[in-house]
Amino acid sequence: MRCADIDLQDALALSLLVAIQDAADIAFHIVADEGWGVPSSYAEGFEMLARHGVIDASLAADMGAAAGLRNRIAHGYASLDVQRLWQEMPAGLDALQRYAAAIARFVPAP
Q1: What is the number of structural domains in the chain?
Q2: What is the dihedral of CA 71, 95, 92, 16, to 10 degrees?
Q3: Rounded to an integer, what distance in angstroms lies between the CA atom of residue 106 and that of residue 87?
């Protein structure tokens, strides 16, 4: 898949970055609230959630990969490999959907 519209491509990449960042922020917030320690990376935050049964290990690995994608967007945007972005985006979006469902099960309803 390829996006010929550079503005659309940029908007999608940045929206994905924000979504993954929000997921990592949620992981860090839960880890801190539960007193499970201080993760040294986004991937470790997801691993800590898995160790405590909030998400499964497979999802933690998938979210760690999504965090890597987030880092490539954030830190190398001018040289971002667009083909790689389009290849990884479906898996990242799927991981985000599964993550949202797992977090919704963990966090009690108001």
Answers
A1: 1
A2: -70
A3: 30
